């Protein structure tokens, strides 16, 4: 390719696993460094979304100590990002060509990089790959580069899918052991390793094998021989195994005050460092999963025992930080979501990357998640149980996805699950006994549902997808439907299945028979997406955003007849997430795919109220109850937002920093309970009255492996109990009345 946007590519500056960096020129002759994503990643919608968010994060970082972003196009055929071209050797080239740095040079480098990290962290960004090759030496001091795209360059160490983040000699112990707990302190550890390299030409942990380096980083003491004596204590603290014992960039600069280095006018301002959240490797109804388009503490927190200031490393109550700081922290967690490096011999071994996308019906919405079975067995004694597998064909290492249907009209309650290798299985909700299981060559996990008296499951393979309907009693297949030629997923609406053809026509099937009920185009729509069905209103909601993302056409459709009850064009890039008492709730995304508001649309009066969030949240998943929107962001921030206040402004009822980097959608129920699952199999519950973490189960991994999934199945809630799947392939049920005993 000769151009990226309007910039002519003149020469290749470097290449990595994720993209190529070119020297380019603008129309005025300005020299730029343009990163262009490889074609195979350009075809991945999830990668595009991640790249878009990375561009947004890079824009927030000042250009004083980095290469500022000039332009970018994450939506191009080959996504690209242009930054200012900064002439000068990398630190790696300087040491290789000229040998170790003199003590005075080393102190200036230390101060310059500490100042750069302070600037980066203040913007809410964690670099996660600070190393000699990513530091440019210029007349104005060091510049930190290459935190826009994660790419494998300095190591052959890879996960099963070839994904890599970081370079082992410059990675912190938590990046190997708990990659989703990575915060600003990991960059400080990398700074310590980088300084040893600059002073000696080698690293503090040295071996030809990246696996041995990983072991040394986690278990061995750093080799600081060759460092100037007055820098040994400081660098030693930077290389502490415990992130909490490492200095902040401000503290580093304080120890390097004049006359330690030649910057007599510089006196660093002290500030509190960014808090480092605990991060676990990471149905409702009322749930929206992110934008359109992975072991923490095992014990429950006693609310009375939690002090107002909770030390890092312990789950705690709502965050008391101001919105500006919260926004910065949310940004750095957003950056921390790239695929992580796995080191199998010495630390936890993580499973491969696989997508749970496409035709799964994971966002069905009802007015009450517990459903009409509120009286069913709610007062009966319930013994927690665990089913090790949902079928002989099940492949462990993936969390099964389950849904619960309450008893209706004499029909018993039903718990149905699916996983890789099992299309559908019915379990006894009382004890987890597998009643029947139907194996199939299923690549991904979709949530099976009961619709039209049958169990519906979507089978996805390399050859395509198919919807199958099974008899609820014996698991016999009743009918099936090839999903080739459809897009946007399968939406179940009571006893109707809604599909959207490739040409934009909507087709409705009878759930019991599979026969077509109606087929037509929705007025005003060319590519509608059904993101929500509400039994309370009887409507399914289709949304379609305008090409420029400024408005969204929303239609309420009667699923049995196809009649459009109403249509309204709303401002913003919106997705319906819930209905309650005649109000449709929608989540709003900004141009950087960050959730920035919740919109209330009163369908009776036509009143529209936009409730902005106190800070943008990355990939927030939303649940609504009693006018309060509960937003669970990627990175673990949980926010309760009262949307009923007049004037469109709302203060958070509470905020909670959970220790979960990747979570399922939240499920909110009566009785002040909110549930969600973590990628390691933990089931977590929060008291919605005050945002207190009140229960969590133990992680359930398979031999330490954590399979990274594009989306995590939400727990299934029933009266008095909660069901969830775990990566060890099990399904378990717990008593929801006393989560402190989980």
TrEMBL record:
Pfam families, A to Z: Pkinase (PF00069), PQQ_2 (PF13360)
- Iron among keywords: no
Residues in the signal sequence:
none
Going by the UniProt record, its keywords in alphabetical order are:
ATP-binding, Kinase, Nucleotide-binding, Serine/threonine-protein kinase, Transferase
Region Disordered, annotated ranges: 241-260, 284-335
InterPro entries documented for this protein: Kinase-like_dom_sf (IPR011009), PQQ_b-propeller_rpt (IPR018391), PQQ_rpt_dom (IPR002372), Prot_kinase_dom (IPR000719), Protein_kinase_ATP_BS (IPR017441), Quinoprotein_ADH-like_sf (IPR011047), Ser/Thr_kinase_AS (IPR008271), WD40/YVTN_repeat-like_dom_sf (IPR015943)
Q: Name one GO molecular function term.
A: ATP binding
Q: Which PANTHER family match?
A: MITOGEN-ACTIVATED PROTEIN KINASE KINASE KINASE 20-RELATED (PTHR43289), SERINE_THREONINE-PROTEIN KINASE YBDM-RELATED (PTHR43289:SF34)
State the protein's name: Serine/threonine protein kinase
Q: Which organism is it from?
A: Streptomyces niveus
Q: What is the lineage of its organism?
A: Bacteria, Bacillati, Actinomycetota, Actinomycetes, Kitasatosporales
């Amino acid at each position: 390719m000769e151009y990226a946007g309007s910039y002519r590519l003149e020469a290749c500056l470097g290449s990595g696993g994720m993209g190529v960096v070119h020297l380019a020129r603008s129309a005025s002759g300005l020299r730029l460094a343009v990163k262009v994503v490889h074609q195979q990643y350009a075809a991945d919608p999830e990668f595009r979304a991640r790249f878009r968010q990375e561009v947004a994060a890079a824009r927030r970082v000042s250009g004083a100590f980095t290469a500022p972003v000039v332009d970018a196009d994450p939506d191009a055929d080959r996504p690209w990002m242009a930054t200012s071209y900064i002439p000068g050797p990398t630190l790696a080239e300087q040491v290789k060509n000229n040998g170790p740095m003199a003590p005075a040079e080393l102190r200036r480098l230390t101060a310059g990089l500490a100042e750069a990290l302070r600037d980066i962290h203040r913007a809410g960004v964690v670099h996660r790959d600070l190393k000699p090759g990513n530091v440019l030496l210029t007349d104005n001091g060091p510049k930190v580069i290459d935190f826009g795209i994660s790419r494998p360059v300095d190591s052959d160490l890879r996960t099963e899918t070839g994904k890599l983040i970081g370079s082992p000699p410059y990675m912190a112990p938590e990046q190997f052991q708990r990659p989703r707990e990575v915060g600003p302190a990991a960059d400080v550890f990398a700074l310590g390793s980088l300084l040893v390299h600059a002073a000696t030409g080698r690293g503090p942990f040295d071996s030809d094998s990246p696996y041995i380096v990983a072991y040394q980083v986690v278990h061995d003491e750093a080799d600081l021989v060759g460092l100037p004596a007055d820098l040994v204590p400081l660098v030693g603290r930077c290389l502490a195994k415990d992130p909490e014992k490492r200095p902040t960039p401000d503290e580093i600069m304080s120890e390097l005050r004049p006359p330690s280095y030649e910057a007599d006018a510089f006196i660093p301002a002290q500030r509190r460092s960014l808090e480092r959240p605990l991060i676990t490797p990471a149905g409702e109804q009322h749930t929206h999963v992110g934008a359109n388009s992975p072991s923490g503490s095992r014990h429950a927190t006693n609310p009375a025992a939690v002090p107002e200031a909770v030390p890092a490393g312990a789950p705690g109550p709502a965050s008391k930080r101001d919105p500006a700081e919260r926004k910065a922290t949310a940004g750095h967690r957003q950056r921390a979501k790239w695929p992580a490096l796995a080191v199998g011999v010495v630390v936890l071994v993580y499973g491969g990357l696989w997508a749970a996308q496409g035709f799964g019906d994971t966002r069905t919405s009802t007015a009450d998640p517990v459903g009409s079975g509120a009286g069913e067995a709610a007062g009966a004694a319930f013994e927690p149980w665990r089913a090790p597998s949902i079928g002989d064909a099940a492949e462990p290492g993936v969390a099964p996805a389950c849904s619960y249907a309450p008893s209706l009209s004499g029909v018993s309650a039903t718990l149905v699950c699916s996983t890789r290798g099992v299309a559908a299985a019915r379990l006894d909700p009382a004890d987890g006994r597998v009643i029947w299981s139907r194996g199939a060559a299923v690549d991904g996990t979709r949530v099976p549902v009961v619709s039209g008296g049958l169990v519906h499951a979507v089978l996805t393979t390399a050859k395509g997808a198919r919807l199958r309907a099974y008899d609820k009693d014996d698991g016999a297949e009743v009918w099936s439907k090839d999903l080739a030629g459809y897009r946007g997923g399968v939406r179940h609406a009571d006893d109707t299945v809604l599909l959207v053809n490739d040409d934009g026509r909507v087709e409705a099937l009878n759930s019991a028979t599979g026969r077509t009920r109606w087929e037509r185009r929705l007025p005003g729509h060319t590519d509608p997406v059904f993101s929500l069905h509400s039994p309370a209103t009887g409507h399914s909601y289709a949304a379609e955003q305008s090409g420029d993302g400024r408005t969204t056409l929303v239609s309420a459709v009667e699923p049995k007849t196809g009649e459009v009850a109403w249509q309204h064009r709303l401002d913003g890039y919106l997705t319906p997430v819930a209905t309650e008492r005649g109000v449709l709730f929608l989540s709003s995304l900004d141009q950087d795919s960050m959730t920035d508001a919740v919109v209330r649309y009163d369908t009776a009066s036509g009143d529209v109220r936009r409730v902005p969030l106190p800070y943008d949240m990355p990939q927030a998943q939303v649940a609504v109850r009693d006018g309060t929107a509960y937003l669970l962001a990627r990175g673990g921030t949980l926010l309760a937002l009262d949307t009923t206040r007049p004037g469109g402004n709302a203060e958070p009822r509470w905020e909670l920093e959970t220790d979960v980097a990747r979570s399922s959608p939240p499920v909110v129920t009566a009785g002040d309970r909110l549930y969600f699952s973590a990628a390691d199999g933990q089931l977590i519950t929060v008291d919605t009255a005050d945002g207190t973490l009140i229960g969590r189960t133990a992680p359930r991994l398979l031999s330490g492996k954590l399979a990274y999934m594009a989306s995590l199945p939400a727990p299934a809630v029933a009266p008095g109990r909660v069901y969830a799947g775990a990566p060890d392939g099990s399904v378990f049920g717990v008593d929801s009345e006393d989560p402190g005993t989980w």
